[in-house]
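Long-time lurker. I teach an intro course on protein structure, and each term I like to show students one example going from raw sequence to a predicted 3D structure in token notation. This year I'd like something fresh instead of my usual example. Would anyone be willing to generate the tokens for the chain below so I can use it in lecture? Attribution to the forum is fine with me.
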Amino acid sequence: MNNERYVRGWEKLKEIDGKAGENVIESLEDIAPDFARLLIEFPFGDIYSRPGLDLKTRELAVVASLTAMGNASPQLKVHIYGARNVGCSRQEIIEVIMQMAVYAGFPAAINGLLAAKEVFLQERSSSALCG
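-- Reply from a regular --
Happy to contribute to a lecture. Here you go:
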């Protein structure tokens, strides 16, 4: 696991998703360790590490995509957290999710908004514990 793609991907994963991303990888290691490795190397080591888009733009694109899919709530929550972690405001995230109602339908947008609400509530309760 010390190849360049893996190391670059692991660092990018931690930068974007922090502990939430690490938890996803850990949850896969006992059932599909090769898939966990690929998840680090390809999306994070190859794609997220490319020049051309900043992390904020990349995360907003992922939030839009996962919202439009309509069936990826756990991954959507991780990426909403990631979007917040790289500087996206709550309003930007909400607007991107609402925009998906036009292209993916109201049910997908509602599910996305409910996922965002859950992440934002978690943020509030975490900051209340720390503050």
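Some talking points for your students: Residues 4-29 form the longest helix (26 residues). The mean pLDDT is 93.
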